[in-house]
């Protein structure tokens, strides 16, 4: 019997991600309302997903020709609501699935973050994760009163210290601190709640955390940075990693590297679940799935400026400066933003012209191409996992809608379950326990 793998959903943004998609209701009129996301969380819980991760950034892009125009006109990561709000509503709409909002270390002081995440963990009965990001844009930095973000590797050094602070705050309540002893009238055992008094290079805090403890002790930590420094960070702290690498050889090398780093840091590598982004294209027949893939690719070809604007937003590169026919290996592309994404783009691009390379990289597929009937795609996922070694997939659809979510939750997942590749029921009440189930 094959062993099951983990499933998550990488939700790109809130509210507007389904803009322009059919089968999603009146998203243009109702974009402020959370029903689409709550329905999605309920559907994914029906399919026993480990988690839904709410991706985020807190600025309006202006990397494309130095203007906000293309971002605003096409709803590229704007408008988007604060992920803490979406996460709260999703938690209220569900009972078992893990929910992982994204917050950057430069936007929230550690105490604020630790308290907010602990509160969410409490109201969700132990189902919260934090997607820990260090930020990638100077435009965002300016929204928070900074001139620019610190340099790439320094951001991770600062994040190391940030983790010490928030872990100290989450640990400031020992297990058993809540007594709720009606006889003596004592709610909390004061001997089990401690100050933190952390004084570091960048952060200071007193503590203890006034929200009380997280039901999970510490929340689940997710992280996505894939540069060598990012992997080092993830290997030390992450329970789950969002990985975006093209091809099973690269996927395997990435996972092997993270696992080796985790072991070297004294952790059990099986406690770090690497999930790969994929964008499956499903149909009732192979022909229908291929026709939908062709339509998806044709749409990407019409949206080259938007795709470049998005890639420019996460790398801070103004792609309007480059000729679309210029071979990528002749361009001087550098970033203080998503380094690993840019490296992977260069690797996939080789000598291809920019336009072609972009379509190959961002046009349709994800880490591996998944196209066909639910059963065929389940087989393709099994093959990829066999080659890579584990640990699962994060679905991230370019054409998300109520229809495509249902195709995954009620088509693909049952096909995976029939092959023993996905869980049929949650074994545990809390998020981390489910992540560690296999
Ligand atoms: C697949 C993927 C998803 C990411 N999601 C977010 C996000 O939601 N918000 C954010 O600010 N950064 C996000 N990041 C950025 C990373 O957390 C990290 O800050 C950035 O990639 C720079 O690190 P690196 O050079 O180590 O990859 C993402 C990165 C990747 C590769």
From TrEMBL:
InterPro entries per the UniProt record, alphabetical: Diverse_substr_monoxygenases (IPR051260), Luciferase-like_dom (IPR011251), Luciferase-like_sf (IPR036661), NTA_MOA (IPR016215)
Keywords annotated in UniProt: Flavoprotein, FMN, Monooxygenase, Oxidoreductase
Name the residues that span the membrane.
none
> A GO molecular function for this record?
monooxygenase activity
Give the coiled coil ranges: none
Q: Where does FMN bind?
A: 56, 102, 152, 156, 227
For the keyword Flavoprotein, the answer is yes
Record-annotated Luciferase-like domain positions: 38-390
Protein family according to the UniProt entry: Belongs to the NtaA/SnaA/DszA monooxygenase family.
Q: Which named protein is this?
A: LLM class flavin-dependent oxidoreductase
- Specify the species: Roseicella aquatilis
């Amino acid at each position: 019997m094959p062993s099951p793998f983990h499933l998550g959903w990488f939700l790109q943004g809130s509210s507007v991600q389904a803009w322009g998609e059919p089968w999603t209701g009146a998203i243009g009129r109702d974009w402020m309302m959370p029903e689409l996301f709550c329905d999605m969380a309920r559907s994914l819980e029906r399919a026993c997903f480990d988690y839904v991760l709410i991706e985020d950034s807190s600025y309006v892009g202006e990397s494309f020709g130095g203007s906000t125009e293309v971002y605003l006109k096409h709803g590229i990561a704007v408008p988007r609501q604060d992920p803490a709000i979406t996460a709260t509503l999703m938690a209220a709409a569900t009972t078992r699935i893990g929910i992982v909002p994204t917050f950057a270390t430069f936007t929230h002081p550690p105490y604020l973050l630790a308290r907010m995440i602990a509160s969410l963990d409490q109201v969700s009965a132990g189902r919260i994760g934090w997607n820990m990001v260090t930020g990638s844009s100077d435009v965002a930095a300016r929204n928070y009163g900074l001139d620019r973000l610190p340099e790439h590797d320094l951001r991770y050094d600062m994040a190391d210290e940030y983790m010490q602070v928030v872990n100290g705050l989450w640990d400031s309540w020992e297990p058993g601190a809540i007594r709720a002893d009606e006889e003596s009238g004592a709610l909390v055992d004061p001997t089990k709640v401690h100050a933190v008094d952390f004084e570091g290079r960048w952060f200071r805090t007193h503590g203890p955390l006034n929200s009380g403890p997280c039901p999970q002790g510490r929340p689940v930590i997710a992280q996505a940075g894939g540069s060598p420094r990012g992997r080092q960070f993830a290997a030390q702290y992450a329970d789950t990693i969002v990985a975006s690498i093209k091809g099973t050889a690269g996927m395997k090398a990435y996972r092997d590297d993270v696992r080796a780093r985790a072991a070297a840091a004294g952790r059990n590598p099986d406690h770090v679940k690497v999930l790969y982004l994929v964008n499956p294209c499903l149909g009732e027949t192979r022909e229908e799935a291929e026709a939908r893939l062709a339509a998806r690719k044709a749409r990407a070809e019409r949206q080259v400026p938007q795709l470049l604007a998005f890639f420019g937003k996460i790398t801070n590169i103004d792609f309007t400066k480059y000729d679309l026919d210029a071979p990528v290996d002749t361009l001087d592309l550098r970033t203080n933003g998503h380094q690993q994404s840019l490296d992977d783009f260069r690797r996939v691009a080789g000598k291809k012209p920019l336009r072609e390379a972009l379509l190959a990289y961002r046009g349709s597929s994800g880490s591996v191409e998944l196209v066909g009937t639910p059963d065929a795609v389940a087989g393709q996922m099994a093959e990829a996992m066999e080659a890579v070694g584990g640990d699962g997939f994060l679905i991230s659809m370019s054409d998300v809608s109520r229809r495509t979510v249902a195709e995954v939750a009620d088509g693909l997942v049952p096909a995976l379950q029939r092959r023993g590749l996905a869980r049929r029921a949650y074994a545990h009440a809390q998020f981390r326990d489910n992540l560690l189930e296999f």
